[in-house]
Amino acid sequence: MFLNIFLLFLHIFIFSPNTMGNIIKLYNKNNSIETLQTIADTLNDGGIIIYPTDTMYAMGCHALKERPIERICKLKKIDPRKHNLSIICYDLSNISEY
After folding, report:
1. Are residues 49 and 62 in contact, defined by beta-carbon separation less than 8 angstroms?
2. What angle do CA 11, 15, 21 make, to 5 degrees?
3. Report field, pTM of the whole predicted structure over 0.85
4. pLDDT tens readout for residues 37-74
5. 17 vs 72: CA distance, rounded Å
């Protein structure tokens, strides 16, 4: 499943510490509060999400949670002390938290 910029929805794969995995479909607009809250809760609880970008799928987690960062590094077989990881922020003023 590849992301096409003209698609009206995308799939988010959610792996929380308490579940094996779920697939959530997000739309460009009019997503339910419950769906968005499920994704936020997953990230806040230390879960990992997999989401499409313009070129490939990416893994994401809460940037201030150590365990999911370690899990992503283990899955990617990288040493976080030697490899930089990207973070996504709301805007530049949000970067100071990290």
Report:
1. no
2. 75
3. no
4. 988 888 999 999 888 888 888 899 998 899 999 999 99
5. 13
